[in-house]
Structures are given as C-alpha cells and as structure tokens.
Design brief:
262 residues; alpha+beta; Arc Repressor Mutant, subunit A; Beta-Lactamase; 2 domains; 6-stranded antiparallel sheet; 9 helices; 9 strands; 42% helix; 19% strand
C-alpha cells in the first residue's frame, strides 16, 4: 500500500477502540495514551470523536465504549457467509455431544470466535462471536497455527506474550512449536487446562474442497467430567462428521484472505 493511501487519523481511532477490553472496560485519557502509545492530545481527540459519534461515553473522567460499537463487528458477521454456514452444524454438534461447540479464525496472535453453540459454561468468561483468546494456548489456535508454515507460526508466537495462565500452560515458543508438529501429524489438537484450570478442549480444522483453511472447530468440556485424554475417543468422530459435511459447502469467497492453507 502506498504511504499516501494510509489514513493515520483513522488508524489511531481504531487503536483507541482496541485499547478497551474485558479487563479494562473504562479508561482515562492517561491510560489510553499509555496503552496505545499515542500522545495525550491525540488520545483525547480520538476519544471525544468517539463520544460525539456515539461509540463511547464519558463520565467526566473515564471513557467506555457503547453498544453502538457492536455495529462494527456485526458488519463483518453480516457480510461473511462463513458464520451462517457453520452455525446450524455447531448447534447440531453441541446437542449431539452435550457440550459447547465453537468456531474461530486466526487474527494476529489471537483467535476470534465467529460462531458458538453453548450447552454449559465451562470457562470463567462468557464466550460469544467476537470474543478473543490467545492462539498459542487454545485448541483452535493450535490447529490454526499448525496449519501455517512453521516459520510463520513461529513469528506469530514470538509476537505473543507467552506466560503461564495455569500450571499446565506451555510458555516457550519451542514447546508450542513442538506441540504444533504433533497436531499437524495427528490432525487435531487437545488442550488440557492450559488456558484455564478445569477446561479441556479438542479442535480440528475446517477446510474447503481444495484444502484451504476456513476456520477451526472445537468442543470444550469440564476436565473433571471429561479428562483430556478421553476427548479424541469421545468427540473426534463427531467433529470429523461436521468437518466432512462442511467441506463441500465452503467456497473461496467464504474464507478470509489471510487464512492459512492446510
């Protein structure tokens, strides 16, 4: 892209929006400036612009986003057929196995949920389309990373903030790469309480008829009810059926341009 085509003010506004998250839903100008690296005056102008447009509100000290921001994410979901294709299959899968099922895509160092069918809550946070999790310690992230050329997967991991979320979390790039190699060989990923204590999950790729990766599909369960070692025997056949059913339905237009290739 030509430098003259880059709109710096727009980019800064997006940086400000992305500074808000579940841990910090309310932020001051100082916090926004520190988080984004923008100077205070620029952060202030961006925030006041968002307030004027209805995307944020201000109580005199703190700023927080309003529900209007959901329009931005809804535009992607409405314009992309992939979530609509997947959702009925997720619903049926969740009913069949009696567990929550989800689909996500890789976005930078994170996975972004694009569809979900929840049976029971197994995580401390509520997951829904648009939710994000670190790719390196999530089962869907592992299969998506494993589908990339190893040099690309390593580059993503080196940009990630690897740290121990639980005593079971793999916290080095080499350890995650080694696991990705196993995932690539066996065709699925199992996470045993690496993301959150008490949670295990299993994931596979969703690919089109030409083998291009569209998304990842997973089933999550309570580790106290379903040990991770039992997940392939219990859930992999059902995941494979959904994988096979969706394969002929997926087309190039359904797939993100930056999706990895299997």
């Amino acid at each position: 892209m030509k430098q003259t085509d880059f709109v710096g003010g727009f980019a800064k506004g997006l940086q400000v929006i992305e500074a808000f998250n579940a841990a910090t839903p309310k932020l001051t100008i100082t916090h926004i400036s520190a988080t984004t690296g923008l100077d205070r005056a620029t952060a202030r102008r961006c925030l006041l612009t968002l307030v004027e447009l209805g995307y944020a509100r201000h109580d005199g000290k703190h700023f927080e986003l309003t529900p209007k921001v959901l329009r931005l994410g809804h535009a992607y979901l409405a314009a992309t057929p992939l979530p609509r294709l997947i959702q009925p299959h997720l619903d049926a899968l969740s009913e069949e196995v009696g567990q929550s099922a989800s689909a996500s895509v890789l976005e930078g160092t994170e996975i972004v949920y694009i569809a979900r069918a929840a049976q029971k809550r197994v995580m401390s946070i509520s997951l829904m389309p648009g939710s994000r999790l670190p790719a390196w310690c999530a089962s869907m992230g592992r299969v998506l990373l494993a589908a990339l050329p190893e040099v690309e997967a390593r580059a993503i991991l080196e940009r990630s903030q690897l740290h121990a979320l639980t005593p079971f979390t793999r916290t080095t790039v080499d350890a995650v790469i080694d696991e990705c190699r196993r995932v690539r060989e066996q065709g699925y990923a199992v996470i045993d309480q690496e993301l959150e204590l008490g949670l295990c999950s299993i994931a596979v790729l969703l690919v089109d008829a030409r083998g291009r990766v569209a998304a990842a599909l997973n089933i999550g369960a309570s580790a106290s009810q379903i040990p991770a070692a039992q997940m392939p025997a219990l859930y992999l056949p059902a995941l494979r059926r959904v994988q096979a059913a969706l394969r002929p339905l997926l087309h190039p237009a359904d797939i993100r341009s930056d999706s990895p290739t299997a």
